[in-house]
Specification:
Length: 280
């Protein structure tokens, strides 16, 4: 049985004998014999190419690459069936493989040849295989837009090894950071901080107005018992109560001159006859 390689165009021969005695080679049919093929157990179909007569009852046909190929199959049978006028039908069976033994032998020979060329000793300066190397590496550098690296690199006398930093490690700040840390805040920085805490406004520019507004606030506003403004109002009240003196009484007002704190009634001779009634 013949083995052919898949997806090739081999030539297959077949013998036709006379149907009268079943052994005499039948000649003179030329291209008339009909050939059908069955691929991998499939239905028989007509061959693509025509038949040629070889002689002595032998005929041949050249298969196409499609006829020797079966999708997804690497080893399969190809059956040939031939008929001719006055001849007994004849059949041939061939095996189609992904590669034939002869091809495998050729590939093995090629591998052995390549392995034999692998050097087993170190390359010497005179080895002709070094001629394949291009020593002028500099000629392969870009002609523009390239800066060559320095010829030498100078390192410090000692290059200590540092462990990777981790959480909790101390950090040495630079002198530049220390100077920035102790510098007085700028006007913009003060404005930004006060705006974030108390709302928008040019706080530095309005500092004089803010101080003035504190002192210009009415004394009546300071009404929270225990606050400095409240006690200051009381002190000023005691020092600067306003008094209205008439022929019959003396009225004492608070520091805002709005609330009567006390009234004293006078007799005709100008002496006080009633005690002071004072509110706080």
């Amino acid at each position: 049985m013949r083995v052919i390689e898949q997806q090739t165009t081999p030539t297959l021969l077949f013998l036709l004998v006379a149907s009268t005695d079943h052994f005499t080679p039948l000649t003179g049919l030329g291209s008339a014999p009909v050939v059908t093929l069955s691929k991998n157990g499939g239905a028989f179909a007509a061959a693509t190419n025509t038949v040629s007569e070889v002689g002595n009852g032998w005929y041949k046909i050249i298969l196409t690459a499609a006829e020797t190929y079966s999708v997804g199959v690497t080893g399969w049978d190809l059956a040939l069936h031939a008929t001719g006028a006055g001849a007994d039908p004849t059949d041939r069976l061939v095996v189609v493989e992904l590669a034939t033994v002869s091809n495998i032998d050729t590939e093995v020979d090629a591998i052995q040849t390549a392995l034999a060329a692998v050097p087993t000793t170190p390359l010497l300066a005179a080895d002709t295989r070094l001629n394949n190397l291009d020593a002028a590496v500099s000629s392969r550098l870009p002609t523009s837009g390239y800066t060559a690296p320095p010829g030498t690199v100078t390192l410090a006398a000692s290059q200590p090894n540092y462990a990777p930093a981790k959480t909790g490690d101390a950090m040495n700040l630079t002198a530049a950071y220390d100077a920035a840390k102790t510098a007085a805040p700028t006007t913009a920085q003060i404005d930004t901080a006060l705006t974030a805490a108390h709302g928008s406004g040019s706080w530095v520019a309005d500092s004089a107005n803010i101080a003035g507004a504190v002192w210009d606030t009415a004394a009546t506003v300071h009404a929270i018992n225990g606050s400095f403004g409240y006690y200051l109002k009381r002190i000023f009240g005691w020092m600067f109560w306003r008094k209205d003196v008439t022929t019959s009484q003396i009225k004492t007002y608070d520091t805002d001159n709005t609330t009567v704190l006390g009234t004293q009634t006078l007799t005709g001779d100008g002496t006080t006859t009633s005690s002071v009634s004072k509110s706080v």
